[in-house]
Amino acid sequence: MASNCTRFRLVGRSYVLFVLMPEPPLAVWLGELDVWARRSHGFFDRRPVLLDLSKLPLSKPELAALIADLKARNIPVVAVEGVDSQLLDFTLPPLIHGGRPGGESDADTVAGPAETQDRPCEPTSLLLDKPVRSGQSIVFTNGDVTVLGSISSGAEVIAGGSIHIYGTLRGRALAGVSGNADARIFCAKFDAELVAIDGLYATANDTTSYLCGRPVQAWRDQDSLQMREIVSSARRRV
Amino acid sequence: MGQVLVVTSGKGGVGKTTSAAALGAALAESGQNVVIIDFDVGLRNLDLVMGAERRVVFDLINVIQGQAKLPQALIRDKRQERLYLLPASQTRDKDALTERGVARVIDDLRATFDWVICDSPAGIERGAILAMQHADIAAIVTNPEISSVRDSDRIIGLLDAKTEKAKKGQQVVKHLLVARYDESRASSGDMLQIEDIVEILSIPLLGIIPESEQVLRASNLGSPITICNPESAPGRAYFSAAKRLNGEVIPITIPRERNRLFGRLLGGRAA
Ligand SMILES: Nc1ncnc2c1ncn2[C@@H]1O[C@H](COP(=O)(O)OP(=O)(O)O)[C@@H](O)[C@H]1O
Ligand SMILES: [Mg+2]
Fold first, then answer.
1. Which residues, in sequence order, are CB contacts of B248 under 8 Å at separation 6+?
2. B150, B151, B153, B154: best mutation site toward chain A, by most A Cβ within 10 Å?
3. Does residue B12's CB lie within 6 angstroms of at least one atom of ligand 1?
4. Atom of ligand 1 lying closest to residue B21 CA
5. What pLDDT, on a 0 to 100 scale, did the predictor assign at position A6?
6. Neighboring chain A residues of B151 at a CB cutoff of 8 Å
């Protein structure tokens, strides 16, 4: 009989987590979070997040209250960063440190339901030759994502690098999530619920209706998210 | 070997059951043997729409659990001899539908029928997944409104990920069936345009079924519209859709009611 201890294996695995970094005053920050969540409905919906408290020192009861507040918003906090380990006991999520911006992690492509791919060597770009359908979430932190079709309303593509969409962007595109401020988003037709680059975001309400239906690129200029119609040089010459 | 067609949508009340019955009857009219399976355990409807509710003895779950043989549970339509119904159970627990049982029933039916049509329950849960599991072809029923289109989009994603075909690296052939289309509301901008729906879902159009009181009348009579009123606008729309399922290439039109003017003339004469 095989010995039982061979069954026990400890495996290391890296994941990409979204980080919430509250700033004082907390009430204002929570208010902004609510506005954000309302605009991009369902974005958090039980998506696990890490709470980085380096900008907001809290006492233990305050921290417990904040975690409860987030839970009430359907945002589960799975770990905390940037606090003294004394603050956390077993009733609170564990302390974590040494996080790197997502780009260096070896997290997988989590393509929509049951589409996870096995890859022999690490590619630095991902090509999607089918539309990204409502309810699907494509996460690729190693580089650029190219979508030949459209991204539906209620679907999302999250990339470490830039995102190129040859169809219509109706859902969400989050580029540069590994801390790459140079990432850009390009789409042939813009009708997005949300675009974000390295943490800076704009929702449908923030974007001028002029852009709707046009080819658009989005990029980050210092601390602002810029969006502009892509005018081809051929057209410009006319 | 017959083909398995799933009629699905995500959203409820869009016209799946109506369409499964109408397409099934139209395919049977064209000389093919057709069976329609009701997958809506607990909310069965197809027997009513096909006027067979008093003839249900055994159902799909009885067959899966071995309490009845498949031929015992099949109900032959009284008006169209090539059309059969396999009813859902109204009383059993949904969990009694097992993956293996469904696979066996579909394999058996496929061997004797030209078309096995699966009428899917609403939602994206287990029942809907079981109904689409063995499909070769899918008719995605969509109403011209944004919530229906989004649910259809979701279902298309599942067809591409969860079906047997998808697991083998193949694709279910997907068709869009726009149902309950109201031309006057579409032109006034109340409803999504057909082009927009096709663009959003990016799958080919199988047909446009107009909103019509004839459908309600047919369903109250317990007869598929393609049997009780084949010349009505929705009847003709379903017949063209059935032809396209058989591979015929015919242009898509939005059928209009022909008999309105006719009816008025008749009325005038009677007066
Ligand atoms: N083309 C149509 N015109 C008018 N009413 C329709 C049409 N198609 C379906 N209906 C009605 O809509 C309701 C829901 O249809 P049903 O086929 O049961 O939908 P589902 O199976 O998707 O839940 C029924 O009352 C049906 O008679
Ligand atoms: Mg139904």
1. none
2. B153
3. yes
4. 17
5. 60
6. 134
Helix axes B194-201, B146-159, angle to 10 degrees: 30
**Nearest partner of B9 among B34, B40, B36, judged by Cα:** B40
Contacts of B154 in chain A (CB under 8 A): 133-135, 154
Asked if the peptide bond before residue A57 counts as cis, ω within 30 degrees of 0, the response is no
Is the pLDDT score of A66 beyond 80?
Answer: yes
Cβ-based burial of B222 (10 A; exposed 0-12, middle 13-18, buried ≥19): middle
Q: Which residues on adjacent β-strands are paired with residue B3? A: B115
Using left for φ > 0, alpha for ψ between -120 and 50, and beta otherwise, residue B169 falls in left
In whole angstroms, what is the distance from residue B244 CA to residue B206 CA?
A: 7
Question: Measured between CB atoms, does B166 come within 8 Å of chain A?
Answer: yes
Shortest CB distance from A131 goes to which of B158, B162, B202? B202
CA distances for A129 relative to A122, A190, B10, B232, angstroms: 19, 19, 24, 41
- Give the integer Cα–Cα distance in Å for B54 and A118: 53
Residue with the smallest CA separation from ligand 1 atom 23 is B13
- Interface confidence, given as ipTM, is 0.77
What domains does chain B contain, in order, with CATH numbers?
A: 3-269 (3.40.50.300)
Overall average pLDDT of the A37-65 stretch: 81
The size of chain A, in residues, is: 238
Q: What angle do CA B85, B149, A166 make, to 5 degrees?
A: 125
For range B230-242, the mean pLDDT:
97
Q: Is B11 in the pocket of ligand 1 (CB under 6 A)?
A: no
Exposed / middle / buried, residue B266 (Cβ in 10 Å: 0-12, 13-18, 19+): exposed
Q: Give the atom of ligand 1 at the shortest distance from the alpha carbon of B210.
A: 1
d(CA B207, CA B139): 10
Q: What pTM was computed for the model?
A: 0.77
